[in-house]
Amino acid sequence: MKFLSINHRSGGGMAALLALAFFIFAASPSFAGSEIASGTFEGRSKHVTTGTVTIKREAGKTYAVLGSDFSLDGAPAPSLGFANGETFDVATEFANLASKTGAQTYEIPAHIDPGKYDHFVIWCSKFAVPLGTAALK
User: Fold this and answer.
1) Quick check: 94 pLDDT over 70?
2) DSSP code string of 27-90
3) Closest listed residue to residue 65, CA positions, set 30, 21, 89, 17
4) I want to staple 134 with a disulfide (CB 3.0 to 4.6 A). Which of 1, 4, 39, 81 is the partner?
5) What is the three-class DSSP state of 24?
6) Do the Cβ atoms of 121 and 81 come closer than 8 Å?
7) 104: part of which helix (H) or strand (E)?
8) What average pLDDT does the chain have?
């Protein structure tokens, strides 16, 4: 599966999205919350991406939790977002990846509804390509 097309939504823009304040939390095995979806990463665009992601809701907020098994071989400025089918939605690009390995938790902004998407994506904005995708179930 290739993720090559991009859905540009009107209003705002990448600068506005990147200007939002995001909270990155250290993930721990004790992170509670109800699971909304989860998936296992597969590499894309000749990159190796492995491990799991779980989308959780806790105290009225939604989080993307990368598992301790998460690993990305590297790329310039990887970020996080969502896709449907083969279309990455740039309006969902919400945080820069803090580390190429290990457990990490990211708050998903309230304007993004993960339930509307079937893939979680590690995205490279510089080259507009996916680095890894996880089908959400």
Assistant:
1) yes
2) --TT---EEEEEEEEEE-TT--EESEEEEEEETTEEEEEE-TT-EE---SSEEEEEEETTEEEG
3) 30
4) 39
5) strand
6) yes
7) strand 104-108
8) 84
Tokens of 89: 């939605």
Half-sphere exposure of 107 (CA within 13 A, CB side): 13
| Encoded amino acid at 50, one letter | T
Q: What pLDDT score does 31 carry?
A: 57
DSSP-derived pairing of the beta strands 5-7 and 87-89: parallel
Q: Give the model confidence (pLDDT) of 31-76 as tens digits.
A: 577 999 999 999 999 999 999 999 999 999 999 999 999 999 999 9
Q: Which of 104, 16, 108, 2 is nearest to 60 (CA)?
A: 108
Q: Which run of H or of E encompasses 108?
A: strand 104-108
- Joined together, the tokens standing for residue 135 give 């089908």
Residues making up the chain, counted from first to last: 137
Q: What is the pTM of this model?
A: 0.78
SS3 (DSSP) at 23: coil
One-letter amino acid for residue 117 of the chain: Y
